[in-house]
C-alpha cells in the first residue's frame, strides 16, 4: 500500500494532500480519479473443491442492494455483486473495479470506462446499458433506499458500448466512492425483467465472485464459484457458506472448534482471548464504525434540541468504551474517528460529559423531573450490555426507559420504516467510504436512516453541497467542519464510541485482511 501511494504521489495525483500517516489518509473521492489507469494487479491463487465457512452476525435484510436497509448486508452483497468502483483497504481511496477507469471531464460530467467481457450470473452481458439501468433504478425506483446517494445526478447515458457518461446537477467529487457502495452494485437487468420496480430480494443476481445458491433466514447464506468471473484466479474458494450466528461468543467457539474458518465483528473483549489461543489468528484494525443512539426527532421531547443536547452531555463516553469494549476503541464525538482527515475539532467541542449542564438543559425544556424514552435494539449479549450502560448513565439525569429487542433487520425495518416503532434505537452506523454519504444518509430529510424524516438544521444542505464541490482535501475538510458542527451542536443523534475491528481466523486461513470500513471482503481468502 505504501508503494501504491508513492506511485500516486509521484504521478502528481495526490499533490494537494498534506503529509499524513498511513491510517490517516482516507482520500477524498476525486483525489484518485485517475487511479483506473494504474492497472493494479488482480491475481489470486485459486483452489478447487473448497468451501469457505464464515460465522456472520446478522441476518440480511435483502439480497437486493437497492432495497436493503441493514449496514451488515454489505458483507453478504459483496460476494454476489461487484461495484463500479472499489476502495483501498487501508485508505478508502477509490480504485478500479467494473469501471476500469473514470474521469471528471468537467466539474459536472463523470465518464466511466467499463471492463469488457464481463457477464452477470444469468449469462447476460455487463455493458453500459446495464450500468445506466442500474443507476437510473437506484436513483428513481420507488423502493430504492439509495436515492440520496445519487441525488446529484441529472442524467446517465451510454455513450459507447462500454462507456457511461454521468451528468450532474452540481459538482460531486464524492460520487466515485459512492459508486463503491450499494449505489454502485450492479444487478442483472435481465433478472429484473428490465423493470426498475422489480427486485431480487431473495435471489441475488450480480457479477460477483460467487453465484447465489440459497438464503435460509436466521440460518445461513450460500454461494458457489462464478466460473466466468472476470478477475483471474478469483474467488480463491469454490463454495461459500455464511452461518448466521448473532452471539459473538458462539461464533468465536465455532472458529475455535473448526466448525468455521473465520468470524468477523467480534466483541472487543474477545481480543485478549484470541491472542492467547493456539491455532487462531487475530485480524484487527481501526474502522469508521460508530455506535450511536439514533433519534426519531419527530417524537415527543426529542423534538426539542435542548433535550437532545442534554442526552448528549449525559453520556460518559470514556466509561462507555471501558465497560462495553474493554477499552478497545475510542469515544465517538462525531461520525468519524480521530484519525480521519475530515475529523472536526470544532464539532468535537459540542460532545463532552457534563451532568450538571445536562440537568440544566432539561430544566430549561420543562423536564426537570425527567421523562421516558421508548428504546429499541438487538438481542445479542453485547448489545444487551450496551443497553444496560446507556440506561444507567441516562438515569443520572432522570431519563428512564426500557428496551424492546429483536433481530437486527426486524428492528431496523420497524424503527426506520413506515411503522416508526420507538423513540430511539441503540445500534451502529457501519460507515461508508466517503463521509458525504454518512451525513447525507443519516440526516437528509427523506433518507431511510432519518426515522422521523425531519429536515436538517439550517446550513446543513449548503455545507453538504460544499463537501462535494471540490477535490481539494483541505477545502472538503473545511466543509465537513461546518457540517459536523451543525450535526453535533444540535445533537441530531447521540454518538457513543468508535468500534475497532476484531476478527478471528484459524491459522490455515490466508488473505483475510482488516479494512478501514470494518466490513470484510472474502474473494481472496483461502483455507489451507
Automatic annotation (TrEMBL):
Its main location: periplasm. One of its GO terms (molecular function) is peptide transmembrane transporter activity. GO terms for cellular component: ATP-binding cassette (ABC) transporter complex; outer membrane-bounded periplasmic space. Residues 94-447 form the Solute-binding protein family domain. It is found in: Periplasm. Pfam families: SBP_bac_5. One of its GO terms (biological process) is peptide transport. InterPro entries: Peptide/Ni-bd (IPR030678), SBP_5 (IPR039424), SBP_5_dom (IPR000914), TAT_signal (IPR006311). PROSITE patterns: TAT. Belongs to the bacterial solute-binding protein 5 family. This is Peptide/nickel transport system permease protein/peptide/nickel transport system substrate-binding protein.
Amino acid at each position: 500500500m505504501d508503494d501504491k501511494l508513492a506511485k500516486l504521489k509521484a504521478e502528481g495525483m495526490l499533490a494537494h494532500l498534506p503529509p499524513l500517516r498511513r491510517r490517516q489518509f482516507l482520500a477524498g473521492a476525486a483525489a484518485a480519479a485517475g487511479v483506473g489507469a494504474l492497472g493494479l494487479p488482480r491475481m489470486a491463487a485459486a483452489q478447487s473443491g473448497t468451501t469457505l465457512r464464515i460465522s456472520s452476525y446478522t441476518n440480511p435484510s435483502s439480497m437486493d442492494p437497492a432495497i436493503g436497509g441493514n449496514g451488515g448486508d454489505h458483507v453478504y452483497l459483496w460476494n454476489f455483486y461487484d461495484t463500479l468502483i472499489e476502495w483501498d483497504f487501508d485508505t478508502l481511496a477509490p480504485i478500479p473495479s467494473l469501471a476500469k477507469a473514470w474521469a471528471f471531464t468537467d466539474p459536472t460530467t463523470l465518464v466511466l470506462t467499463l471492463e469488457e467481457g464481463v457477464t452477470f450470473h444469468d449469462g447476460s452481458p455487463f455493458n453500459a446499458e446495464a450500468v445506466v439501468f442500474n443507476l437510473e433504478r437506484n436513483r428513481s425506483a420507488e423502493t430504492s433506499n439509495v436515492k440520496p446517494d445519487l441525488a446529484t445526478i441529472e442524467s446517465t447515458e451510454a455513450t459507447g458500448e462500454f462507456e457511461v457518461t454521468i451528468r450532474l446537477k452540481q459538482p460531486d467529487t464524492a460520487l466515485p466512492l459512492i459508486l463503491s457502495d450499494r449505489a454502485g452494485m450492479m444487478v442483472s437487468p435481465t433478472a429484473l425483467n428490465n423493470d426498475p420496480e422489480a427486485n431480487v430480494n431473495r435471489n441475488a443476481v450480480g457479477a460477483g465472485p460467487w453465484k447465489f445458491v440459497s438464503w435460509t433466514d436466521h440460518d445461513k447464506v450460500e454461494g458457489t464459484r462464478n466460473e466466468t468471473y472476470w478477475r483471474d484466479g478469483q474467488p480463491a474458494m469454490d463454495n461459500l457458506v455464511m452461518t448466521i450466528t448473532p452471539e459473538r461468543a458462539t461464533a468465536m467457539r465455532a472458529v475455535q472448534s473448526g466448525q468455521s474458518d473465520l468470524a468477523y465483528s467480534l466483541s472487543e473483549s474477545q481480543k485478549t482471548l484470541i491472542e492467547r489461543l493456539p491455532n487462531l489468528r487475530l485480524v484487527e484494525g481501526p474502522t469508521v464504525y460508530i455506535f450511536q443512539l439514533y433519534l426519531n426527532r419527530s417524537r415527543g421531547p426529542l423534538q426539542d434540541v435542548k433535550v437532545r443536547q442534554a442526552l448528549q452531555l449525559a453520556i460518559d463516553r470514556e466509561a462507555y468504551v471501558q465497560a462495553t469494549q474493554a477499552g478497545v476503541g475510542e469515544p465517538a464525538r462525531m461520525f468519524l474517528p480521530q484519525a480521519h482527515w475530515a475529523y472536526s475539532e470544532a464539532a468535537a467541542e459540542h460532545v463532552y460529559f457534563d451532568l450538571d449542564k445536562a440537568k440544566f438543559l432539561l430544566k430549561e425544556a420543562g423536564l426537570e423531573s425527567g421523562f421516558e424514552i421508548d428504546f429499541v435494539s438487538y438481542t445479542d449479549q453485547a448489545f444487551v450490555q450496551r443497553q444496560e450502560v446507556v440506561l444507567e448513565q441516562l438515569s443520572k439525569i432522570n431519563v428512564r426507559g426500557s428496551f424492546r429487542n429483536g433481530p437486527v433487520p426486524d428492528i431496523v425495518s420497524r424503527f426506520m420504516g413506515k411503522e416508526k416503532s420507538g423513540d430511539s434505537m441503540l445500534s451502529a452506523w457501519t460507515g461508508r467510504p466517503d463521509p458525504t454519504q454518512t451525513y447525507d444518509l443519516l440526516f437528509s430529510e427523506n433518507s431511510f436512516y432519518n426515522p422521523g424524516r425531519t429536515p436538517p438544521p439550517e446550513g446543513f444542505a449548503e455545507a453538504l453541497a460544499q463537501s462535494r464541490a471540490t477535490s481539494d482535501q483541505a477545502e472538503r475538510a473545511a466543509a465537513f467542519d461546518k457540517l459536523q458542527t451543525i450535526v453535533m451542536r444540535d445533537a441530531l443523534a447521540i454518538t457513543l464510541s468508535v468500534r475497532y475491528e476484531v476478527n478471528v481466523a484459524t491459522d490455515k486461513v490466508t488473505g483475510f485482511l482488516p479494512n478501514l470500513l470494518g466490513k470484510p471482503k472474502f474473494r481472496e481468502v483461502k483455507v489451507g
